[in-house]
Specification:
Helices cover 30% and strands 24% of the residues. With 127 residues, it is α+β, with helices and mostly antiparallel strands. The chain has a single domain, classed as 60s Ribosomal Protein L30, Chain: A. A four-stranded mixed sheet has the order 1-4-2-3, with helices on one face. This is Holliday junction resolvase RusA (Prophage-encoded endonuclease). InterPro entries: RusA-like_sf. GO terms for molecular function: magnesium ion binding.
Length: 127
């Protein structure tokens, strides 16, 4: 059963592990800012993500990547995007109250392009 569907912003390119490691402070600041943005979206009235009850089993978290027009389709791959989404997934884990190490499955998919880019997150919980 899908319990939540959230649309998060496209992660900043400097969170890519494949990029230059110059300006590590800038990367750290971007990581904090992206996590804070994702957490704020999950707390927004009308889109708030509810904490799951104790003992809830997160069967699957699906990430659908909808890149912005300026990103080449082969300009990102799943291992890179997974690492760029780390802060967003940490914010999600805090919002639902289930550590991401306890999720049973993480599925990544390519979606349609959208104006500013987005990552659609769906959370499925077992009965």
């Amino acid at each position: 059963m899908i319990v939540a569907r959230i649309i998060l912003p496209w992660p900043p390119s400097n969170l890519s592990p494949n990029g230059s490691q110059k300006g590590l402070r800038g990367k750290r600041a971007s990581a904090r800012a992206y996590k804070a943005t994702c957490a704020a979206i999950m707390r927004e009235k009308g889109r708030a993500v509810q904490k799951l009850p104790a003992g809830a089993v997160v069967e699957r978290v699906t990430l659908t990547y909808c890149p912005p027009p300026r990103v080449r389709l082969n300009g990102y791959d799943f291992d890179n995007m997974g690492k760029r989404m780390k802060q967003g997934l940490d914010a999600l884990a805090e919002a639902i109250g289930v550590d991401d190490g306890e999720w049973l499955e993480l599925l990544q998919k390519r979606g349609e392009r959208c104006r500013d880019g987005a990552v659609i997150v769906e959370i499925e919980v077992g009965e």
